[in-house]
Amino acid sequence: MGSGTGAKDAVELLRGQGMRMTPQRLAIVDEIMSTSGYVIPTTVIERVQARVPGVSPSTVYRTLERLEQVGVLAHVHLESGVGYHRLDEAQHAHLTCARCGAELEMSRSSLRSLERLVERGHGFRPDFTHYAISGVCAACRQAEELRPPRRGG
Length: 153
Description:
Shape: flat
Strand content: 15-25%
Largest sheet: 3 strands, mixed
Number of strands: 5
Number of helices: 6
Radius of gyration: 19 Å
Strand order of the largest sheet: 4-3-5
């Protein structure tokens, strides 16, 4: 999918696949395509149900899956479960703090350097687009360092 895919383009792709575009599905697609960063299914469900009562979670999940099939979204495994990101935003990777849940973006050039390092050292070409990179953020590490040591006993 080319860069800058919008809600109208996504709707046309879904229609082209024979999907009926009900008001509920239009609201789902609009929410997904207006979300920056990761698209979390439970958040989409909450936001769409607040605007269009009666939208079922299964309709949201089917729409997400279909948008992945037509090349608008890709799923990614996060600390909190499965999420999605728009393929036109895939020029970076996400670093997710396992302690506080903070998300940071790693630039594509830094990601390429990391990919080359792994490939040179191990002969293995990693795919960092499918998983967020989990670790501990600087703020959590600093808070841990400032904590007084525990006393044994």
